Amino acid sequence: MSDLQHKLEELLNEVNSASITDSAQLEEFRIRFLGSKNCLKPLFSELKTVPNEDKKMVGQKINELKNTAQSVFDQFQDQLSNETQNEEKIDFSRPGEPSEIGSRHPISVIRKEIISIFERIGYGVSEGPEVEDDWHNFSALNFPEEHPARDMQDTFFVKTDDEEMALRTHTSSVQVRVMENSKPPIRTISPGRVFRNEAISARAHCFFHQVEGLFIDKDVSFADLKQTILFFAQEMFGKKAKIRLRPSYFPFTEPSAEVDVSCTICNQEGCNVCKYTGWLEILGCGMVDPSVLEAANIDPKEYSGFAFGMGIERIAQLKYRVNDLRLYSENDVRFLKQFKSTL
Ligand code: 2U9
């Protein structure tokens, strides 16, 4: 047997006994037997040295070796790709990973509850910017130039290129925009975040949430205001809730009042939540000052209106009896997950 035939035998053995278990070995095999510089190429060159009568037979053998190498390669390639597919196969019958369902923030729960109560009596919802100009936050609401609420202590001022702006201190600014952009009758509530420059403690925060309401039409009276607030209090705190109004002062309403609701915790028998008074303060309100209507181009001789404002945190404190204001903005999951709501 010639040298060349001997080499062919050896290579055929090698191909037939190849054991390939990973893709690196498969690649090694491909380079050796099928790549552009494979080990069969020199054999074809050596064919020149084979005697003429044997050339055909040896040439066929080299070709057969090449074909065998190709089919061994194909076989191992199939086997490996089946194995990896099996590894990645997804078992759809496995139970899913348990995922915890989140809960609404208590401020959102109360905000939605307040909105839903007023929507039932014909109010729409209006929203506006948190960064406001002096007109919408102060001047249009009848704040005199030298009013202390404009001071640095209460208001965060924001410098822009052409104007000094403020972080709104109440959502009344939104309602000024509603008055400017629509004609009475107006029935709207404005929920939103407001900002006051105060040191953070259990009882004060530099931001909190409000819902303010505005009703403007012909012949709106203080009796309408009282009845609306009573409806709200009873929807929010239960049908047995009573309200009382105490005279107060706000620049944008005249007359103005603060509203207390009967203590639902002790049924007015006296407890430490109502400080043994039987009453809890829930909101402020009043008849819209004629100069506020005028500032928004609404004729106070033709129209009158009432307005009210409440802090959502305050209502949440009464409903959930959580008094530390900081808890409402810290987003501690252990606190938040205690609130469940259908709204
Ligand atoms: C317009 C005119 C008048 C909104 C009103 C109050 C009374 C009030 C406070 C309650 C607690 C703010 O969150 S709080 O600190 N608000 O007492 N707000 S009347 O009056 C308006 C609103 C809009 C155009």
UniProtKB/TrEMBL annotation:
Residues 83-103 are annotated as: Disordered. It catalyses: tRNA(Phe) + L-phenylalanine + ATP = L-phenylalanyl-tRNA(Phe) + AMP + diphosphate + H(+). One of its GO terms (biological process) is phenylalanyl-tRNA aminoacylation. This is Phenylalanine--tRNA ligase alpha subunit. Belongs to the class-II aminoacyl-tRNA synthetase family. Phe-tRNA synthetase alpha subunit type 1 subfamily. HAMAP family: Phe_tRNA_synth_alpha1. GO terms for molecular function: ATP binding; magnesium ion binding; phenylalanine-tRNA ligase activity; tRNA binding. Tetramer of two alpha and two beta subunits. Its main location: cytoplasm. It is an enzyme of class 6 (ligase). Mg(2+) binds at E254. One of its GO terms (cellular component) is cytoplasm. Binds 2 magnesium ions per tetramer. Residues 110-318 form the Aminoacyl-transfer RNA synthetases class-II family profile domain. Keywords: Aminoacyl-tRNA synthetase, ATP-binding, Cytoplasm, Ligase, Magnesium, Metal-binding, Nucleotide-binding, Protein biosynthesis. Its EC number is 6.1.1.20. The keyword Magnesium applies. It is found in: Cytoplasm. Its cofactor is Mg(2+).
